[in-house]
Amino acid sequence: MSAKVIVAQRYPRLVRSVGGVRQMWRQIGEQTRFYLQALGSLPDAIINYRAELLRQVASMSLGAGALAVVGGTVAVVTFLNMSTGGLIATFGYNQFSEIGTQALTGFASAFLNTRTISTGTALVAFSATLGAGCTAQLGAMRISEEIDALEVMGIRAVSFLVSTRITAGVIAIGPLFCVALLMGYFAARAGTTLLYGQSTGVYDHYFRTFLVPSEVFNSFVTVMILTVIIMLIHTYYGFTATGGPAGVGQAVGRATRLALIVGAVALMLVTLAIYGQTGNFNFAG
User: Fold this and answer.
1) How far is CA 102 from CA 112, 121, 160, 282, in A?
2) Greatest distance between any 2 Cα atoms in the chain
3) pLDDT tens-digit readout, 168-178
4) Per-residue confidence band for 279, with pLDDT thresholds at 50, 70 and 90
């Protein structure tokens, strides 16, 4: 009897734990290889698959099929950021009223919306719409052997299917995040001035005072980084989906969960890298 069999019989839990750790590291290695291959294929996708790239940009921005009726991702991002902007007006005005500084609600919108709230909301919206859609599309192509057929035809599947979607996501994220940020600002202003009756002049004064253009640019950079992370994770799970339609559904769920977790950690790290621990904010009066 070999030593491996003896160890497996005496310490079954230890063997299962070691096997689980090995499987986890193997999966991390496979994902890392896929991510590097996808990123390295970006020039190939831009040069040789421009038609597919443009098609993906149109599909991600306005949606395809039934989603095009309601505006696709634009509608989802708009309503989500209007909701979070309204929460800033509600909670910000009430909390500042506790200490008699309700005039600072405009500051809360300019400061919080720009740095964290709009980017975090965009993370959830893009993962639930763009990312999940890519996972489902690629998963359906994998189980129906369409990806294998493309490779047999001589088409580079990673470049054609994955890199084009990553590039299209980065291209589409610019106008989509503009809509998200503007809707957040608009909802916070409308809620504060129309519902709570604060003067528009007071609100605009504090909003414009604390809205720094460089922070708006930083938020765009942050969202682009998050978009690349989201698209990499979702395309990997879709490209490697197995198990039929049920396996595609599991891949969508796992990809969304991992994208939200990794995206939240990346958002925290990028925010700390840009603004530091103090936030570069000084308020005195």
Assistant:
1) 15, 25, 53, 18
2) 85
3) 888 888 888 88
4) low
